[in-house]
């Protein structure tokens, strides 16, 4: 059987996995403006520019890559098979994280950094996490009760988008859309950026960056980035049907990659007016800047990886198979590393580098042994079967051509 794996996607998945780990590795060391489980008050570093650049593109590109496999899995499995597969591979890990992993790390945070008398795990779980107890005085949040999905919000959204796709495919199953041979041009990309920028700005007039809302009481969402995330989910689904990621012109990919690098340089040297939101010019400029950066890096990296790294690597393929598990376990792994580094007398920047490197290594090592050596537990962390889906991509497009 010929090898039909899309190799550059393995490299891209591993790269994105590392950007998530590095983003979380820097949380205690200044500039994130968000909640985190470890407080290291002895550092004077500021990673705000890094957080802004990384957050501008990495999760949007992650959504794109994940959404790319949704229609392909649906075509292969059908309604019932697709539903069962998503509930098993995404729903079970999400549920396990919600009732086991998140309570444990929130329990650690409660006892170590909130300043309240220590509780047993059972007392914390019942009274604080589930909220059956009385809300403590001067409660610092981030919400009450502590019940939340934490870093697993991405998996929650991926499951919801999959279910919405299933619903739409059944509601409009009698509508036959024509297949379009689509290749993105600079004009297409520019129009996309402007539209998403405007929606992003309008959302941020009411919802600031890093402001998380419990939609319907259980959907954990940061509205400020929602237009970008949704746009890239739709873009990923379109890409699966038109296969345009393999046909981005080299000159288009290089232009947007260079543009993304230029935008990063402008940010690093302080030429970008950062804004968390609001109805003013700085908020509009930052929404446009961030969307341009997100799109430029995404298009540029996809084309670059496809052109330079579309080759077989057993090492990268092994790491790529573990990225779903890595995403789930990287937060507790980093918490342990960051907590151990509190007493280390070095600068916050050095701690950031150490936490990043150790987090990447240990998260991948632990996920490897979970998946390879503990097959029963690995069912909780298997995630979407991208290996099979990648084969379906090639087979599907071969049929479309014929």
TrEMBL record:
Q: Which UniProt keywords apply?
A: Acyltransferase, Membrane, Transferase, Transmembrane, Transmembrane helix
Keyword check for Transmembrane, yes or no. yes
InterPro entries reported in the protein's UniProt record = Acyl_transf_3_dom (IPR002656), Glucan_succinyl_AcylTrfase (IPR050623)
- Keyword Phosphoprotein on this protein? no
- Membrane spanning residue stretches: 49-70, 90-110, 149-168, 189-209, 229-248, 255-272, 284-304, 324-342, 348-371
Acyltransferase domain ranges (all copies): 6-371
Query: What's a Gene Ontology MF term here?
Result: acyltransferase activity, transferring groups other than amino-acyl groups
Q: What is this protein called?
A: Acyltransferase
């Amino acid at each position: 059987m010929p090898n039909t794996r899309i190799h550059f996607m393995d490299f891209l998945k591993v790269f994105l996995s590392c950007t998530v780990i590095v983003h979380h590795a820097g949380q205690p060391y200044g500039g994130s403006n968000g909640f985190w489980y470890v407080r290291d008050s002895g550092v004077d570093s500021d990673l705000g520019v890094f957080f802004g650049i990384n957050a501008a593109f990495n999760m949007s590109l992650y959504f794109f890559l994940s959404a790319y496999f949704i229609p392909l899995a649906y075509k292969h499995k059908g309604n019932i098979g697709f539903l069962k597969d998503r509930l098993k591979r995404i729903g079970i890990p999400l549920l396990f994280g919600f009732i086991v992993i998140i309570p444990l790390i929130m329990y650690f945070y409660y006892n170590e950094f909130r300043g309240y008398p220590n509780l047993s795990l059972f007392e914390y779980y019942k009274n604080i996490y589930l909220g059956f107890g009385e809300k403590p005085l001067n409660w610092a949040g981030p919400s009450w009760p502590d019940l939340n999905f934490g870093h697993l919000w991405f998996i929650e959204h991926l499951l919801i988008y999959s279910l919405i796709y299933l619903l739409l495919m059944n509601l409009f199953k009698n509508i036959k859309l024509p297949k379009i041979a689509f290749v993105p041009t600079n004009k297409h990309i520019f129009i996309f950026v402007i539209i998403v920028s405007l929606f992003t700005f309008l959302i941020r007039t009411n919802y600031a960056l890093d402001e998380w809302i419990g939609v319907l009481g259980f959907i954990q969402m940061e509205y400020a980035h929602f237009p970008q995330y949704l746009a890239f989910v739709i873009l990923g689904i379109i890409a699966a049907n038109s296969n345009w990621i393999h046909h981005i012109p080299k000159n288009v990919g290089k232009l947007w990659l260079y543009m993304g690098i230029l935008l990063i340089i402008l940010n690093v040297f302080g030429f970008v007016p950062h804004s968390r939101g609001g109805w003013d010019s700085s908020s509009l400029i930052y929404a446009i800047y961030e969307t341009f950066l997100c799109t430029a890096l995404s298009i540029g990296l996809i084309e670059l990886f496809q052109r330079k790294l579309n080759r077989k690597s057993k090492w990268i393929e092994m790491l790529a198979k573990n990225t779903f598990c890595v995403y789930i376990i990287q937060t507790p792994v980093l918490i342990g590393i960051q907590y151990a580094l509190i007493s280390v007398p070095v600068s916050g920047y050095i701690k950031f580098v150490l936490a990043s490197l150790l987090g990447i290594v240990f998260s991948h090592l632990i996920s490897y042994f979970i998946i390879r050596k503990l097959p029963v537990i690995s069912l909780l962390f298997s995630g979407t079967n991208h290996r099979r889906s990648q084969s379906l991509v090639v087979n599907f497009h071969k049929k479309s051509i014929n």
